[in-house]
Amino acid sequence: MSNDAYLVLEDGSVYRGEAFGAETSGYGEVVFNTGMTGYQEVLTDPSYAGQIVILTYPLVGNYGINAMDFESRRIQVAGFVVREHSEHPSHGLSTSTLHEFLASQGIPGITGVDTRAITRRLRSQGVMMGYIYSDSTDTPAPLPVTSSKSTEAASEQALARLRGVPKYGDVDFVKSVTTGEPYGWDVPSDVPASKHDRILVADFGLKYNILRLLRGRGCEVMAVPATASAGDMMSLNPAGIVLSPGPGDPALLEYMVSTVHNLIGRVPIMGICLGHQILARSLGSDTFKLKFGHRGANHPVQDLSTGRVYITAQNHGYAVDGDSLPSGLEATHVNLNDGTVEGLRHRDLPVLTIQYHSEASPGPRDSEYLFDRFLEMVRDNRA
Amino acid sequence: MTKVAQRSLQAGDRMGTGASKVLVIGSGPIVIGQAAEFDYAGTQACKALREEGITTVLANSNPATIMTDRGIADVVYIEPLTVEVMDRIIARERPDGILPTLGGQTGLNLAVAIADAGLLDKYSVRLLGTPLETIRSAEDRELFSKLLADMGEPAPPSITVSSMDEARKMAQEMGLPLAVRPAYTLGGTGGGLVRTTKEFEAIVSGGLSASPIHQVLLERSLEGWKEIEYEVMRDSSDNCITVCNMENLDPMGVHTGDSITVAPSQTLTDKEYQMLRSASLRIIRALGIEGGCNVQFALPPHPVVDKAIGSNWEPNAPYYVIEVNPRVSRSSALASKATGYPIARVASKIAVGKRLDEIPNVVTQKTLAAFEPALDYCVVKIPRWPFDKFPAGDRGITTQMKATGEVMAIERCFEAALQKAVRSLEMAGRSLMWEDPDWRRDDSLLSQPSQAIFDYGQSCMV
């Protein structure tokens, strides 16, 4: 029998479940994702750094963990909250259970909690900070949780501890997830890599699938640290630069904004998610925090030039303010659910950005064509 | 907080179908595989079209349906679903379009017959929803294989032979088991799955003589593979969405209608889920369907199952396309109930030119039909067989559907959904843990597939 575990939210609400994964404590911004598959990709997506992720789909871990579905080297979430986790995965590729995976990387999880109730609270109150701990955790308090009184005391202490930790919006998580050194993506592909199509991916917290898809399109692909300067990047002679997705509030990331400002116009740029927000800020737009974000695999986005609707994978808590776009920068895509900006282009400059994830993984692959569109821009620019 | 409010294309920009009067074809008598779900679909269609200000003419031969009730359609014909009768109805009503995709296979077959009789040209009336060629291709095995090949979608490896010698040679190469399908026989007469040389000899020679052109198709057996289906929608502007996918608890070899089905899929990774989702979208686009479509796939089983089957070949594709229903199907009805997405209603509006992003989502009242439902629960369907009414009937479950009904249960976990569904079967208080006293007397009863779920229950009890 597992120990009891608790999720305490900033507003004082407490949810009890069973501990799974590592029996340790953890804190972060509590967000929910509505995708029905792809938990391994979600766990390893660096954009979830500093966040405790709740899956609204209740049955998690059914197909185990495999060697193919990593989007970065390690688990990136601060904690994982599920309705039910499977201890007996059924899949030929599976090498371990979800529990073993979380435990091996020291990430706390809670199972058996009412994820629907938590999601409803986040939808009505907005996302907030949360703290996970279990009975065996010596933090925040080694209290035997037998009476409701001591449970209350423990959650009081958790809440006190939560007030002491840095707020999600105050932390630069990019620095903790970006690569230390540049590296090439040398995974073999059927398509030969062309030096003429050398694409740099600025690693704000990139997902491997961006590298896979670019490499699969014949590009020579190289990831560079988020702290690299514009000069560092241009000295590598890129044909194009992709600004990757990543975690946190773009308003904190002025150093990236100024780097991108110095790159615009010199080389074609594609911005994805955080990359899109950084690029928009570098051209003078504002960003703002969404109440509970867009995280899932079913967000309808309309391409305003064709009227076509694409079902997209999304994972963002901030968005570009459509009223703040400077002249020349225009919205190309819009979210059909709430009307927020989902894509931008510039009248004169070779930039293309999207708020959602053309690399999918997890989620629908309907938007992979955007990489082709970007590479057309790269090839036009060279010609 | 700001919004980009404008949606670039409004209703007036697109090519409307301009239909103002539509003939809806019902599904006729209730038969196995085609029951009340098509009454529901037809009723939704009539209501959805009338909302659009379209005069709705309904033809159905079954008066014991809701769709033929007063107030559902503008004009109702309770008449035999034959070409002669349709000729008279069309001559009298002069509709702009015919909507056959909600009346099951009956509706599609009648649409083909109407077209073959030249009525579409004679009265300059258009077929709505699914192109005629697509209807033909989906029904004819040869055309369907060719269609899949043209699309680059993988079909199970197969070869056509026209003599016993040739068949033996190919069987040597391919190995058993094989599915044998005689060409041009009604309902697959003379075919079947062969596992042994003896069965092979008997069925292939029988099949060769049953086929009017002495031809049989030898196909790799996918028995035991995972069976997955997707419900897809497409509008006239080529916007596509999937409503949901479903995984059959019973693998390939059991008719979907006789399978216990779970939505969404339970054992697929995101890569597999998206691979099949993308394939479904490619297929509905290639078929040019404006409305709903059901695509069925086979996916290699878990290695343990593969070993148990004794599979002796390497698949040449990561999945195979098994079947496409270019219409609202029995599975669409299940998917509708499971997700709350009104497939028949949306399909009808699409058929008369509405785009997915112009149709309001009746569930949320705020968003649009251009989205994909995300479930936070699990749905289990169990077929209901009428064996209690036919005690002497053959209880074997095969590729021929025998269920006359089904139950569906929704729960937050699979076990609870399954148990709810079992209890809903109204089998004298049976639960998952039910055991038949007769099993002690005759344990061959246990191996009957229609009892399988209780069999699993027993094996969990030790």
Rg value of chain A: 21 Å
Distance between the termini of chain B: 59 Å
Helical amount among residues of chain A, as a percent range?
A: 10-25%
Low-confidence stretches of chain A: 140-147
CATH class of the largest domain in chain A: Alpha Beta
The count of β-strands of chain A is 19
Which protein chains make the most extensive interface, counting residues with beta carbons within 8 Å of the other chain's beta carbons?
A-B, 57 and 49 residues
Helix content of chain B: 25-40%
Strand order, sheet with most strands of chain A: 10-12-11-13-14-19-18-17-15-16
User: How would you characterize the largest beta sheet of chain B?
Assistant: 7 strands, antiparallel
Strand arrangement, largest sheet of chain B?
14-13-10-11-12-15-16
Please give the domain count of chain A. 2
Overall pLDDT of chain A: 94
Give the percentage of residues in beta strands of chain A. 25-35%
Brief characterization of the structure:
Chain A is α/β, with parallel strands linked by helices and 383 residues long. Chain A folds into 2 domains: 4-170, Carbamoyl-phosphate synthase small subunit, N-terminal domain (Glucose Oxidase, domain 1), CATH 3.50.30.20; 174-382, Class I glutamine amidotransferase (GATase) domain (Rossmann fold), CATH 3.40.50.
Could you explain how this protein is built, in words?
Chain A has 2 domains: about 5-170, Glucose Oxidase, domain 1, CATH 3.50.30.20; about 175-380, 3-Layer(aba) Sandwich (Rossmann fold), CATH 3.40.50.880. Chain A is built from 10 helices and 19 strands. In chain A, helix 8 crosses helix 9. In chain A, strands 10-12-11-13-14-19-18-17-15-16 form a 10-stranded mixed β-sheet, sandwiched between helices. In chain A, strands 1-2-8-6-4-3-9 form a 7-stranded mixed barrel. With about 375 residues, chain A is an alpha/beta fold. Chain B is of the alpha+beta class and about 450 residues long. Chain B has 3 domains: about 5-130, Rossmann fold (3-Layer(aba) Sandwich); about 155-220, Dna Ligase, domain 1 (2-Layer Sandwich); about 225-460, D-amino Acid Aminotransferase, Chain A, domain 1 (2-Layer Sandwich). Chain B is built from 15 helices and 16 strands. In chain B, the strands form 3 sheets. Chain B has a 7-stranded antiparallel β-sheet, sandwiched between helices. In chain B, helix 1 (about 35-50) links the parallel strand 1 (about 20-25) and strand 2 (about 55-60). At the A-B interface, helix 3 and strand 15 of A face helix 9 of B.
